[in-house]
Sequence to fold (502 residues):
Amino acid sequence: MPSFVCSFPLFMIVGCLLSAAGSMLMRGKAARNLAMAFGAVLFVMDSVLLAWTVKHGAFTYSMGEFPAPWGNELRAGVLECFMLLVFLLVMLCSGMAGYRFLAEDVDESKLPLYASLMHLLTAALCALIFTNDIFTGYVFLEILTLSSCGLLIVREIGRTTLAAVRYMVLNLLGSGLFLLGVVLLYDITGHLLMVPMHEALTEIIADPSMHLSLAFAAGILTIGLAIKSGLFPFHFWMPDAYGWATPTSASVLSSLVSKAYIFLLLKIYLRVFGPEVLSILPLSRILLVLGILGVVLGSVSALRAGNINRMVAFSSAAQIGYIYMSIGIGGTEGYTAALFHILAHAVTKSILFLSTPRLADVSGESLLFRNLQGAGRKDPFSGAFFTAGALSMIGVPLFAGFASKLVIALSAVDTGNLKKIIPVMIALAASSVLNALYFIRTLIRIWHDPDGSDDLYDPAVRLPETVPYTAACALLLAANLFLGLFSWEAVDLIRLGLSMFS
Fold:
């Protein structure tokens, strides 16, 4: 039994790749059903894997049983399994809730291609989370980028084509810089597997003449992933990429793809460089500053946005800033805060991107604020889900957003360093005020109907597509409330996973 469970990471990745090929041979509805069914199977497999790692600890799966440095390795621990479990939940719910708009936005002949791209993206997510080889990380980084671009461009309107091209160019730039960092690290250490690479760096760091080379390699690698994940000032592609994609794509790209890049960066920081090497590099200070700027300026951009999708997209830039700010805080508490915010943002942002097109649908298919008057009364389900997501983003107690901001604040206080505590607290306060301004303004607009229109939305009219949407958003909201009400459970799992990283 243990050896079979330990093969699950490989089965999950290979299964996604095979399903991607199989989807291309099916019709649209059958391909969609396969994607949903296989997503549920992956969720069950990862749940079993999480329970096994909690009980027995982390393990390494050697591909073909070849030892380092020739072999390739997958590694699964509590942290990897827990992160992937939330990612798979968001993926599954995004497919369920956004299917109606997918059928409208994508030509039926291209639905098998869309399902295939979703399988490839899932394979890349699994591989980035489980890989113990930095070059394999680069390979699936590219698969994730290409499949993400496909999910954008499959909606054939001019804005998505332009957004996909911009997204592709910036991501290829980031991939090139990441590969250059990998090459430099391989040249320095002679290894690609993370553990042997870390052991070599631990010896090399004793030589002061190597510090500059290590700083350059780590910096190039970090810049590459920062570009791909949308850290300030590289966040300007987000409004078009997220704002014009079909809702399922927007939910997946904003909630999961950017976070997978950051998770890979954290994995490299902790498993390749380690605390000793990181302590001599200026990365944490730089990321702290850029994260704070992203938190504040992303919120300012959201406040100035002209339509609801662009507002939510710019809000994502601010949330990426929260994560990098937490990484900049450093230490176990800072990394715990960053990982918790990844989860909180994933289950919150997906609700917002899935509910906004419904509000637009009952407002003359317009995303402009002036046309959304009373949209929440016309579609109470979507109005309620958007309200819950907005309250979480503001940081109202009970929701995941409040718990996340609290964990970040406590991680800064735990350092005892006023140079970190004061800027972080100011950024949290400023961003929360700005969040409240643009989200409360939106909530007033969607719930207030000055004309007193009685043309309310009847969910029974669209029952076949309303039930999956409502069920999916309810699951995401339940996950959000769990992270808000039982945040210590998630934090304890993250800390347990981090303790297994060394």
Remarks:
- Strands lie at 59-62, 73-76.
